[in-house]
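Section 5.1 Outputs to date
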Amino acid sequence: MSKRPWGFVVGGLLVALLLAGVVSNYASAHPDGLDSSLLKGCTVNAEDEITGGSCPAQQAQDHELADSPLADYGIRGVDNDFLSTGLSGVLGVLLTFAVGGGVFWLLRRRGAGHATAAGPTGGDRAGGDPVGGGRGDDASRVANSR
């Protein structure tokens, strides 16, 4: 395939940036199934803070990176929650795209080096017979045996 699908890649990146920058702000703020199951046995107030009872969520601790610049789905120092969440989503998409693109680029370069060392046909496929020098199919063997 000689034509690279740049339009498809750029279009996918733009859709991912739109989803991360805008749509992510409309995600549910209510706890998911795992969070809800960890709160069973406790009573919580309107802000989902534990006010009584006994449940596994009471043993929860802050993560080691809780004070990092991109912690809690936002960017530290940006006061507007909508902008903070959107920018952190866009930054995450760009970082993921850069790392993924770099890995694919390295794998492609490594794969290209192996293909040139093996030759353009890759052994005794129909395009090249390394021993007989013919086409590698039955017709060339019959023609060469006469």
